[in-house]
Amino acid sequence: MALVSQTGSSSCIHFSFVPPYTARKTKISYAYNAGVGKMKPRPSVIVAASPPTEAAVIATEPLTKEDLIGHLASGCKPKEKWRIGTEQERFGFDLKTLRPMTYEHIAKLLNGIAERFDWEKIMEGDNIIALKQGKQSITLEPGGQFEHSGAPLETLHQICAEVNSHLYQVKEVLNEMGIGLMDIGCQPKWEVKDIPMMPKERYEIIRNYMPKVGSLGLDLMFRTCTAQVNLDFSSEADMIKKLRASLALQPIATALFANSPFTEGKPNGFLSMRSQIWTDTDNDRTGMIPFVFEESFGFEQYVEYALDIPMYFVYRNKRHFDCTGMTFQDFMAGKLCCIPGALPTLNDWEMHLGTIYPEVRLKRYLEMRGADGGPWSRLQALPAFWVGLLYDEVSLQNALDLIADWTAEERQMLRNQVPKAGLMTPFRGRLLKHVAEDVVQFAKAGLERRGFNESRFLNDLVEVARTGVTPAEKLLELYYKKWGQNIEPIFEELLS
């Protein structure tokens, strides 16, 4: 879901992948020459600490579009510094009643983890809302979905060890509370009204706005879980290649990891209901962003796209101001009705970028956003898939060659059809499973060339692509056969 993200932040405060700004005076100066031009040095500004609740935000001079472009460009780094960031969300539930975890449960869990395993607590008023430890964080989505955001790491083996350590720590506390975590892309039993909202000011603003721009926004907020992979680029040209390849192939990842076929106790007609929900949430900020495939695309075009997307809120004076319906362009001109005359900082820009939800999101790194939540034993293939494709030059070129003549209409068709048909989606006279088999092999070869003995992480995915049977279809088979059309056994089946 990842609502209201900032620098490594997904909905609350999380520190995966890119280190946050610290509160300090800083000269904004970018050495950037990748087809857009050099950034001029700017006067000093005070940039808020991350999380934004920890410091005041003061802008001394308006930002320019060049500042915003330079901010994205500052993410470029040489290949030897590329890292892998992961995020996974899970539903908490009472093991006896199967009801959703309440905030009281969550507060006890976060406090227990902090005290037992030396995590730093993040507070909003009197409420504990997140934990951080180094560059890892634990945060909460609106309906209490429990999210782990990992540190930027070099290998898939390191990621696997980090996630396993996280799950061990969480279970140590949860087992004493009678609470379990469930690995699935969409809440299979409870209605939105049954799910408590977390006590965070920003979520109230978003909850009020969502029904104005789509019919499924509240389902998104309260009933979905995702898994995400964050990857680096070396230059504007490298970013363009990776964004195009990952955007065109994102429906394949959605199909391979489809894991949300139930809603309110019954099959919902989709293999990835989570993915379907995004199609009617807020079309201003979601989708396949076709302009990425235009010849003129680069950092500047993405900035122009983001400038015109309506904002959610601005944080000032220890509160969130509702700025829904106004754009960042308005903010830069000092024309926000909610806080007249206020000017943005780069922290505001970073937060705004995190409220845009295309299938692949560009910040100072790229976020792969197409996969349902699921068991870590299977989800470890997700970073393997994208690292094998995007961090190896041969595999990346193979992917670009594969999609070179795909039309915007074909890419959109895949996005529309995959949530329902999965790998059985017809495409160019064959099935998407056949394309997926080729793409998984590209990824496997890329991992082998990396030389870290990582290709084994793709074993489960190779089998999904070969058979065309998604995790969702396996759950449906259990529902109709072994479970006798009773949804409750799924809580045990997908227990973390």
From TrEMBL:
Biological pathway: Sulfur metabolism; glutathione biosynthesis; glutathione from L-cysteine and L-glutamate: step 1/2
GO biological process: glutathione biosynthetic process
Uppermost EC category: ligase
Annotated EC: 6.3.2.2
Disulfide partners: 323-338
Gene Ontology molecular function, alphabetical: ATP binding; glutamate-cysteine ligase activity
GO cellular component: chloroplast
Major site of localization recorded for this protein: plastid
Entry annotated with the keyword Cell division: no
Subunit (UniProt): Homodimer or monomer when oxidized or reduced, respectively.
Family: Belongs to the carboxylate-amine ligase family. Glutamate--cysteine ligase type 2 subfamily.
PANTHER family referenced in this protein's UniProt entry, alphabetically: GLUTAMATE--CYSTEINE LIGASE, CHLOROPLASTIC
Record protein name field: Glutamate--cysteine ligase
Native species: Pyrus ussuriensis x Pyrus communis
Lineage: Eukaryota, Viridiplantae, Streptophyta, Embryophyta, Tracheophyta
